[in-house]
Amino acid sequence: MEYVKPMDIEKRSFEIITEELGDRKFDELCEPIVKRVIHTSADFDYADNLCFSEDVARIGIEALKSGCDIVTDTQMAKSGINKTILAKLGGQVHCFIADEDVAEKAKSEGTTRSAVSMEKAGKLPKKCIFAIGNAPTALIKLKELIEEKKLEPVLIIGVPVGFVNVVESKEMIMNTGVPYIVARGRKGGSNIAAAICNAMLYQITR
Amino acid sequence: MEYVKPMDIEKRSFEIITEELGDRKFDELCEPIVKRVIHTSADFDYADNLCFSEDVARIGIEALKSGCDIVTDTQMAKSGINKTILAKLGGQVHCFIADEDVAEKAKSEGTTRSAVSMEKAGKLPKKCIFAIGNAPTALIKLKELIEEKKLEPVLIIGVPVGFVNVVESKEMIMNTGVPYIVARGRKGGSNIAAAICNAMLYQITR
Lengths: 206, 206
What we know:
11 helices; alpha/beta; homodimer
């Protein structure tokens, strides 16, 4: 067992990740995002499957600096985001998935709570960052709302995980014209969504 | 895009996982655990790296049926566990990582909050299931407490993720004599820890 001081564990982990990534080159502001996702998952597939729209990390970081809020599709993603730093910058995390009115509307319309929670987020007064780690139906609803001009996200973190319409929903979100960070393919998760948010927050302050 | 009714998405996902696992054979009670972890991560590596001690799924399920509590090392794992079902069975989830006294003790002893949160869990009146998805230092502390007869977990879900002492801490926990479910290697996470708990809960009731 290697003795590493608690405060140095993360630093040592990032050194190992950097070593194993070898010669891989990334955009300067995206690199810490790729590395933090690998740190969160121990899965180097993300070095290949993370897709970034032009200038997206700068857009996300600038927005967070100005107090931008984040909307998540799960409590777990909300739970994983560093809310202390976000609050210092003036932002907060919203997650409507467990709201009574969302559950009722989803039931009556035969759709998912995730999709309805995106509609509810569309009524927030601020432009937000959307961090979707679970539900492809949330991404599909976001696309609809964007096309109907009912919602204008600052950027979409599209990293749902799974087997039904996950791959397709991610490809779709990359064609909306909205800045995106997407994990192409089946992989992703609430932990990945939170890690991407934190990687941007930690570039601002830590 | 495939149209799948919201209530059928999970069912269809499990069918795809079953198809892709092909001829792989698992223990009857462990199979739903393996499949739920793959469902949570879209990562078939878990079909190979999940290790189960003898009879562990039956032990876990029986304990949960009798109202056993779960201790996690992160708020995120706590957030991912189905607390509604757990509460119906008489159990609850404990996570001490964000407690003031834990932070203070960790600082003064130069150790991690995760390790100290395990000491605190050792003082709970009930025997618990420990679900560790983040911190190898939590597993290392659990081993110490077990050897010092200060703690007797019902079972340990040992699935921290990462690069520093993660692999070693998992191998160690498999040699304590305590029933275990471990993801051998670097992979794991809070989402994986929660998925394993839920896979046992859903075998009791859903």
